[in-house]
Specification:
The protein is about 0% helix and about 35% strand. The protein has about 90 residues and is an all-beta fold. The protein starts with 8 loop residues before the first strand and ends with a strand.
């Protein structure tokens, strides 16, 4: 990975949005909800006050409006502060 987050930031690859409902109905692109889980791709070094608790490869749960969307080499990522992550799954 050539993106290296700074400070207490984390780079997350969001899980793909659901294509079908539990009943088997296909969900159109306009009705898909933004995923709230993803895989940690890169982690910053932390700060003197903030110890990094997540590591690369962790599956995490984050808030609906957490992070900033970025696109790098055709892949969409989220970059967010560690404090925006609610849980490690």
């Amino acid at each position: 990975m050539t993106i290296k987050p700074l400070s207490d930031r984390v780079l997350v690859l969001p899980n793909p949005a659901e294509e079908k409902t539990a009943g088997g109905l296909f969900i159109p692109d306009t009705a898909k909800e933004k995923p709230l889980m993803g895989k940690v791709v890169a982690v910053g070094p932390g700060t003197a006050d903030v110890k990094m608790e997540v590591k690369e490869g962790d599956q995490v749960l984050y808030g609906k409006y957490a992070g900033t969307e970025i696109s790098f080499e055709g892949v969409d990522y989220l970059i967010m502060k560690q404090s925006d992550i609610m849980a490690i799954i």
